[in-house]
Write a structure and sequence with these properties.
The complex is a heterodimer of chains A (119) and B (107). Helices cover 0% and strands 51% of the residues of chain A. Chain A is mostly beta strands. In chain A, strands 2, 4, 5, 6, 9, 10 and 11 form a seven-stranded mixed beta sheet that branches. Chain A has a four-stranded antiparallel beta sheet with strand order 1-3-8-7, with no helix packed on it. By secondary structure, chain B is mostly beta strands. In chain B, the strands form two sheets. In chain B, strands 2, 4, 5, 6, 9, 10 and 11 form a seven-stranded mixed beta sheet that branches. In chain B, strands 1-3-8-7 form a four-stranded antiparallel beta sheet, with no helix packed on it. The chains are: A mainly beta (119), B mainly beta (107). The interface between A and B is medium-sized, with 22 and 21 residues.
């Protein structure tokens, strides 16, 4: 069974870049067939899909965040990463990595990591 | 983007009773609708996809229905472990979007 684990700083200063990594185990990103995503959840709020990357490097970003988001993949480490630039307090959230097959249904999720934007 | 609207925001139901949660899409999503359950401090868990197909390991008391713009999640006889927040999600159009959630609480 695929397992995902987020890692990265829990505190980021305003205007800086948020960087998170998701390590995948129990399956290989490079085997294809899955899209590797980031999703966030503001405190006490709903879920917001940030975007995905395929093992080939192709990406799709939510237009609401597109200007600030970069998702990359490192198949040699079986990891994918999120960078969100110019963060503000509004980017404080729990960030999840997750995957879906071709359909867009999220099968497996990481446990989530809280990132707080504060000086 | 497609806006998903869930109602009610909070639903109070007694254990053993039936719960009915609604999800409406701002435009048709066909049957490309999933339901997730989220408990405090946990990631969401897939319950239903294709509007009505239970995911692996999901008890039969969970059922989904609907197509187009109107969808329903029904829990036939609430167990203590079912009290959680439920989200619908459409995967018919990009970007993928979720509803704001329905909190199911013990009455």
């Amino acid at each position: 069974q695929v397992q995902l684990q987020e890692s990265g700083p829990g505190l980021v200063k305003p205007s800086q870049t948020l960087s998170l990594t998701c390590t995948v185990s129990g399956g290989s990103i490079s085997s294809g067939g899955y899209y590797w995503s980031w999703i966030r959840q503001h405190p006490g709020k709903g879920l917001e899909w940030i975007g995905y990357i395929y093992y080939s490097g192709s990406t799709y970003y939510n237009p609401s965040l597109k200007s600030r988001v970069t998702i990359s993949v490192d198949t040699s480490k079986n990891q994918f990463s999120l960078k969100l630039s110019s963060v503000t307090a509004a980017d404080t959230a729990v960030y999840y990595c997750a995957n879906f097959g071709g359909s867009g249904i999220f099968d497996y999720w990481g446990q989530g990591t809280l990132v707080t934007v504060s000086s | 983007e497609i806006v998903m609207t869930q109602s009610p925001a909070t639903l109070s139901v007694s254990p053993g009773e039936r719960a009915t949660l609604s999800c409406r899409a701002s435009q048709s999503v066909s049957s490309n609708l999933a339901w997730y359950q989220q408990k405090p401090g946990q990631a969401p868990r897939l319950l239903i996809y294709g509007a009505s197909t239970r995911a692996t390991g999901i008890p039969a008391r969970f059922s989904g229905s609907g197509s187009g713009t109107e969808f329903t999640l029904t829990i036939s006889s609430l167990q203590s472990e079912d009290f959680a927040v439920y989200y619908c999600q459409q995967y018919n159009n990009w970007p993928l979007t979720f509803g704001q959630g329905t909190r199911l609480e013990i009455k």
